[in-house]
Amino acid sequence: MIAIYYYYLFLFLVLLAPFLLLKKKARAGLGQKLGFINKQLKQKCRLLKGCVWFHAVSVGEFNAILPLR
User: Is 37 helix (H, G, I), strand (E, B) or coil?
Assistant: First the structure.
């Protein structure tokens, strides 16, 4: 049963991929998602070396980590 699900999922993605690649919004940031970083971003990252990044999803999480700065 699970093999059938994976088969249809694979088929769906293979058929849908060309349409997604033609849409500009779907292509945005594709290089970064695949691990390619442009020179400008690399330079900015070098300036931030030694920094700690926190990821907050909600306003409550943001307010909780605000005193850590």
Answer: coil
Which amino acid is it at 22?
Answer: L
Residue 30 to residues 16, 20, 22, 51, 52, Cα–Cα distance (Å) = 16, 11, 12, 26, 25
At 64, the amino acid letter reads: A
3-state class of 26 per DSSP? helix
CA atoms within 13 A on the CB side of 48: 9
pTM over 0.90: no
* Residue 36 φ then ψ, to 5°: -95, 130
The 10s digit of each residue's pLDDT in 31-59 is 888 888 888 888 888 888 888 888 899 99
